[in-house]
Structures are given as C-alpha cells and as structure tokens.
Specification:
313 residues; alpha/beta; Rossmann fold; seven-stranded mixed β-sheet; 29% helix
Length: 313
C-alpha cells in the first residue's frame, strides 16, 4: 500500500536560519521559501512563497531576546494557519521568556504561560523544544509538547573526554535534578552550588555542597546568560582544589559581558548547542549541534512514530 503521508514542509524564522539549514539537510528536505518584507519603521511581514494547504508545516525559530524573534514566530504561525496548513509545529530549540514561570513576588506576570497561550492562539498545533528552564512549562500548553533533552548530544561528547575523577555539578539548587541525571549516566559524584542573589544576575554569595578536591568538574545548566554564575562557580571550585572545571549549557544566551567573563575565567571550556547563534567568537566555547536531534524527532512526529527514546538521559 502506498505511503499516504504527504511530505512535510520546513520553514525558518530569520534568527534561526543557520540551524534550520542544518536540520533540513539532516531531515532530507529543502527549506521552504519565505520572504520577509520590512517597513521603514521596523515593522515586518513574513510571507510563504509556496502553498502549504493541507500540509504539515514545521517552523523553526528560537525566541531569544529581542522580542522581534518571538513576534516573527507568531506571524509565521498565523500565516500558516490562514494558508490552511493542516498541522503547524513550532520548533523552538530555545523557548524564551521561560524564566518567568511563576509569581515570585506580587504584581509580576507569568510570561512563560502568556507566551504558551499566544503561540497556540497564533496557530501552533504542536511544540517541539529542548531543555526548558522549568519542566512544568509543558503544562502551560493545551497542545502536545515534545520536550527534548540536550543530554542526547552532550553525553557522547562528555564521554569522549575520558575524564578521570569526574564530578558533575549544578550551579544552583534548581538544577540539581539535571545534575543528578547526568551523574547517573556518567556514574559520577555530584556537587551542588548554593548561591544567594542580591538581585537578578547579581550573585552576593556562593557555597559548595560536596567535595571537588582532585576532581575534574563539569557544571551542567539549561542556559548561560551573563555567565556570572558559571564563572563564579569555576573560581570557587578551583579554589577548593578542583583539577579542572568545564561547563555544559544548552542555550548560549550570552548577554552583557558574558564573552569577556568566559574568556577571563578559570573555565577550561564551555560546551553549548547551536539553539541560539553565537554573537561572537570565543576560543573557550565549543558548539555541539542539535540539528540531527531535531531532524530525527521531526521525522518521527511527521510519520507518527514514537519519540520516547529521545527522553532518556
């Protein structure tokens, strides 16, 4: 019996063009044609230059700052919906605004929930993302969410290093679950950093829970923003007798003086994915591509196959 599943169509938002090209190549399909018209005041309008009627459409775009990246994803979802696409999947390697996942003080928004709602309103019928800042964000959606783990691409690299006396570390208490998952996969010890913040992105105090003496330490986190926490943790660990400190961070947001901090830090290297394009070159940053992971999951989703193997550390 012939295959009745029509070919999927893959499109990209502007900010994720390079990653989308890698994903499309790994998937085995060309990127769809999209043009974006820009008005003199900065307003823009994406347009699909081919029919998507009745098709499964994958729209690839991370929603890191600024807000135009999220807006472009929303406009493309809306355009696909109005063009009668049958299934519209927002492929968001980095789901932005995720740090605002709860009310941590009075009179503040829950931005992650708001973004989930507007993505669905715009037309998304499915979300594929990776290493959310908080797992419970999946519950903010009424549509299916495929939450992938970057450990799928990081663990092979980590094993290739053949590090003796390996210890996995979390830069804060919130990341302890992720650290324990990596330590289980690597059969290593775990260390947790306890930090206190004076305000957002400013650390006033940091202590270690565990021993790093004579250890090769690998910090794991979902994202790196200003790099203040990672570089501070590396300094503390080296002062406590660690042999080396590396960091694995899925999403390289890298704002402010992050690149300078990393370059001048005691971190041996920072390993990241290409979920967000790097703004500049840094000798200490190594990029491990997540393109094959997304291409495989997209193919499985399109062909109604299980993706449960991608949720195993």
């Amino acid at each position: 019996m012939p295959n009745l599943i029509p070919e999927a169509k893959i499109f990209n938002c502007t900010q994720s063009r390079e990653l989308a090209e890698k994903i499309a190549a790994a998937y085995g399909a060309p990127l769809g044609k999209v043009i974006t018209s820009t008005y003199s005041d900065g307003e823009f309008q994406p347009s699909f230059e081919e029919s998507v009627r009745g098709s499964r459409v994958f729209i690839i775009g991370s929603t890191h700052p600024g807000a135009d990246h999220l807006m472009e994803m929303l406009l493309m979802l809306d355009a696909a919906k109005r063009a009668s696409a049958r299934h519209i999947t927002a492929v968001m390697p980095y789901f932005g605004w995720a740090r605002q996942d709860r009310k941590d003080k009075p009179r503040v928004p829950i931005a992650a929930k708001m973004v989930a709602s507007i993505l669905e309103t715009a037309g998304a019928t499915r979300i594929i993302t990776m290493d959310l800042h908080a797992d419970q964000i999946q519950g903010f959606f009424e549509k299916p969410v495929d939450h992938l783990f970057a450990s799928t691409v990081f663990l092979p690299y980590l094993r290739s290093l053949n590090l003796d006396n390996l210890t996995i570390a979390s830069p804060d208490m919130g990341g302890s679950k992720r650290a324990y998952a990596y330590s289980k996969a690597m059969e290593s010890d775990v260390v947790i950093c306890y930090k206190q913040r004076a305000k957002a992105n400013v650390i006033s105090h940091m202590e270690l829970i565990g021993d790093v003496t004579g250890k090769n330490v690998v910090l794991v986190d979902d994202m790196v923003d200003t790099a203040g926490t990672l570089t501070k943790a590396a300094d503390v660990m080296m002062a406590k007798g660690a042999i080396s400190v590396r960091a694995i961070c899925t999403h390289p947001v890298l704002s402010g003086d992050a690149y300078k901090r990393i370059e001048n830090s005691q971190l041996l290297e920072l390993i990241v994915t290409d979920s967000i394009p790097l703004k500049q070159k840094c000798d200490k940053i190594r990029v491990v591509s997540c393109a094959d992971l997304f291409a495989d999951v997209m193919s499985r989703v399109h062909n109604n196959k299980s993706i449960s193997s991608k949720f195993i550390m």
